[in-house]
Amino acid sequence: MRETLTHKIIKAHLIEGPPEPGLTIALHIDQTLTQDATGTAAYLQFETMGLDRVRTELSVSYVDHNTLQSGSENADDHRYLQSVAARYGMIFSKPGNGICHQVHLERFGVPGKTLLGSDSHTPTCGGLGMLAIGAGGQDVACAMAGMPFYMTAPLVVKVQLTGELQPWVTAKDVILELLRRLTVRGGVGKVFEYTGPGVETLTVPERATITNMGTELGATSSIFPSDEATERWLRAQGREDDFRQLKADQGAEYDEVIELDLWDVEPLIALPHSPDNVMPVGEITGPPVDQVCIGSCTNSSFQDLALTAALLEGRHVDPGVSLTISPGSRQVLEMMAERGDLATMVKAGARILEVACGPCIGMGQAPPTRGVTLRTFNRNFEGRTGTPDALCYLCSPPTAVASALDGCVADPRTLGVPPQIRMPDRFPRDDSGLIFPPEKPSRVVIIRGPNIKPIPQREPLHETLEGQVLLKLGDNVTTDHIMPAGSKILPLRSNIPALSEHVFEAVDPSFPSRALEAGGGFIVAGENYGQGSSREHAALAPMYLGIKAVIAKSFARIHRANLVNFGILPLTFEAPADYDDIQQGTTLKMEDVFASLHSGSFTVQDKTAGSAFTVASEVNRRKEKMLLAGGRLNLLREQT
Ligand code: MIC
Ligand code: SF4
Q1: Which of 100, 297, 324, 490 gets mutated to test ligand 2 (max ligand atoms within 8 A of its CB)?
Q2: Does ligand 1 lie within 6 Å of residue 534's CB atom?
Q3: pLDDT band for position 308 (50/70/90)?
Q4: Which of 444, 448, 485, 621 could cross-link to 87 by cystine, CB 3.0-4.6 Å?
Q5: In a 10 Å sphere around its CB, with 0-12 CB exposed, 13-18 middle and 19+ buried, how is residue 285 labelled?
Q6: pLDDT-derived band of residue 590, with 50, 70 and 90 as boundaries?
Q7: Cα distance between residue 27 and residue 16, in whole Å
Q8: How far does the centroid of ligand 1 lie from the alpha carbon of residue 464, in Å?
Q9: Mind giving me the DSSP string for 513-572?
Q10: How far is Cα 31 from Cα 132, in angstroms, rounded to an integer?
Q11: Percent of the chain having pLDDT more than 90?
C-alpha cells in the first residue's frame, strides 16, 4: 500500500492499535521537550514515578517562558529544572539559550523521529520531517518514563503546494491563508502533510513557521517531507549525520486534499481576537499602531530577523510606535551581532529584548490601554498581551516592519524591492547554553524553592455527582481564558493552590471563591472548549477547585486529555440544543456514574428545572480506569 509520510512514521513507532482515523493508538516516543512554564509540573510528576533515569533517546528541558525574575519564584523554578535534568539524564537549556521550538529545530530535531512536547507548538519540528506533537506535562512525563503516548489516530490531510511565493509574501501568510479557509477548528483530529512542487521553494525555518502555526488550526500536527532543503539545514547545523530522506509514496492516499498555489497567497493579517480572523493587509486601513513585536517561536529564526534588519536599514520607526525584537535563539542572536544586524535595528529605533518567549506570553511589553499591537506571533486571544482591552493583530515580519515604519497597519509591498536573504552554509554552534547531564547523575541533589508545592491529588470518582453549574461559556474558550498566563500569574505555575485563585480571572474573577464555597461543581461550554495552549494547569487548577465535570459541545484535543489525566469528566451533549436550556447556577445531578462511564452515556438531572438530558463520555477503557481512580497519577502511584 502506498503510504503517507505521517503513516510511515506512525507505523515505525506503533505499539498498539491500527492507525485508523478515530481509533486510539499508542506510539513510541523518541524525544521529549518541556519548557519551564509546564516543565516544573511535568518533572514533579515524573519524580513520583520512581525511575532513576529518563528512558527516551533524548529529553530536553528548556527555560524560555518565565524569564522575568521580579521575585525569586522563576529563578527557583529554573534551579529546580536544572537539578532535575542533571539528576535524571536530561539536557538542560539555560534561560537565554532560546525558545524551545527554535532551539530544537536547530540542535536536536531529527527527520522520521517522534517528538512529544509539553507545549502546543511542538509541531514546529514537523518542518524537519519529524512527527512532533504537543501534549500535557503528565503525558510528556509518562513518555520520559518510557510509556507509550496514546492518541487518536489522525486523518491525514494533503496540502498540495504549487508555485512559489510572490515577493513580500512569506510562510506566515501561507499559514494565515489556511486559517482563513479552515478556522481554528478546521484541523481538529488531523495531521497536515505538505507535499507538491511548492515544498522545495521553502527553507526549513519557513516550513517550521507553517507547522508551528498549524497548532492554531487545532491540528494534531503538521509535517513536511525531509529533502535537500532539510539536508542543507542539518549540514549547516553540523548535523548532517541526522539527515534521512523521507517523503510520502507516490500516489499515497489521503483523507482530504487542499490545493494551494503559493503564487496566489498575499500578505495577510489576523484581526483581534482570533488567529482565524484573517484578511488581506491591503484591505485594512488600520488604526494607528502603538506597538510592533517581532519574534516568538513562529517568526524568530535567522531568516526572519536578517530580513527584519535589512528592511530597517537606513530607516527609523514611527515616533508613535514601540518596536520590540526578540531573537529565537542564542545562535540567531550571535549571528545578528556578528553581521551588524543588531546595530542596524538599534539605529532604527528598535528595542532589543531577551532571547525568550517574552511578549508572546505576556512576560512584559503589555501594550497601553486600548492599544493596537501588531505581532509576528501565533496567538491573539483577548487579554493574552497582559492588557485586557488591547487589540492584537498577527502578521509576518515584513508586514510588521512596514507598519512600524509607517505608524499604521501597512502593506509590505510599499517598501520597494525586497532584499534577498542568503541562508548561511554554516551556523555558529555555541552549545554552551546547553548543560548535558553528568556521568554520575544519582549523586545530584534536587533543589526545590519554597514556591514549589506538591501536585494536588484528586480522590477516586464518586458514584453520584451533584453540584452547581458554576460557569456557562460560549464557543472556542481558550486555555488562556481558563488559566491565564502573563508575568504576574506564571510564577505561580509550581504552586497550584496559589495559581488556582486566578482561574477564569478575566471571565469571572469570582469563580475560584464560588467554586471553593460550593465544594466544586460543573462547567458548561460550547464548541472547541480548551483550544490553544497545552498547559495542564487549565485542568489541574480547576481540579483543585473541585470541578467534577465539564459539559461541552466539543473539546480541543490536548485539553480533553488533560482533563482525563486529572480526573475531571469531559462530557459532550448528545443533543447540542440542551446546551441552551442550562443556566448558570442550576443544580445538576448524575447517578450511577460508574455504569454510565462504562456505557458512555449519562443521564443528567437538572434539579432546578426538573428536567433531564443526556451526555456522552466517549472514553476508552484506559481512560475509564484513569477517571475512576481520580486521574492517571493515582493509577501510576498504585502501580509503583
Ligand atoms: C503558549 O503559547 O500559550 C504557551 C505558553 O507556550 C503554552 C504552554 C504554557 O501555557 O505553558 C502552549 O502553547 O502550550
Ligand atoms: Fe513561547 Fe509564544 Fe511560542 Fe508559546 S507561542 S512557546 S509563549 S513563543
Answers
A1: 297
A2: yes
A3: very high
A4: 444
A5: exposed
A6: very high
A7: 7
A8: 35
A9: HHHHHTT-EEEEE-TTBTBS---THHHHHHHHTTEEEEEES-B-HHHHHHHHHTT-EEEE
A10: 9
A11: 98
Q: What's the CA gap between 187 and 171, in Å, rounded? A: 18
CB atoms within 10 A of CB 517: 12
CB atoms within 10 A of CB 415: 18
The amino acid sitting at 491 is P
d(CA 103, CA 432): 13
> Distance (Å, rounded) from C-alpha 56 to C-alpha 34?
13
Q: Is the CB of 119 under 6 A from ligand 2?
A: yes
Cis peptide before 559 (omega within 30 of 0): no
Query: Does 360 sit in the ligand 2 pocket, CB within 6 Å?
Result: yes
Q: Residue 394: what are its φ and ψ, rounded to 5°?
A: -115, 135
Residues belonging to the active site: 64-65, 119, 379, 533, 535
3-state secondary structure of 316: coil
Alpha-carbon Rg of the chain, whole angstroms?
Answer: 24
| Number of residues that this document lists for the chain | 640
pLDDT in tens, 265-305: 999 999 999 999 999 999 997 789 999 999 999 999 999 99
pLDDT at 265: 98
Report CA dihedral (170, 221, 113, 534) to the nearest 10 degrees. 110
CB of 195 shorter than 6 A to ligand 2: no
Enumerate domains of the chain plus CATH numbers: 5-264 (3.30.499.10), 268-410 (3.30.499.10), 465-639 (3.20.19.10)
- Burial grade of 268 (CB within 10 A; 0-12, 13-18, 19 or more): buried
Please state, in angstroms and rounded to a whole number, the distance separating the CA atoms of residues 408 and 389: 19
- The closest of 363, 329, 325 to 70, measured between CA atoms, is 363
DSSP string over 163-183: S-PPTT--HHHHHHHHHHHH-
Q: Which of 379, 376, 374, 354 is nearest to 364 (CA)?
A: 354
Nearest to 493 by CA among 215, 149, 118, 134: 118
Position in ligand 2 atom list of the atom nearest CA 37: 7
d(CA 216, CA 323) in angstroms, rounded, equals 25
How far is 295 from 355, CA to CA, in rounded Å? 9
SS3 478: strand
pLDDT tens digits, 223-275: 999 999 999 999 999 999 999 999 999 999 999 999 999 999 999 999 999 99
Res 138 pLDDT > 80: yes
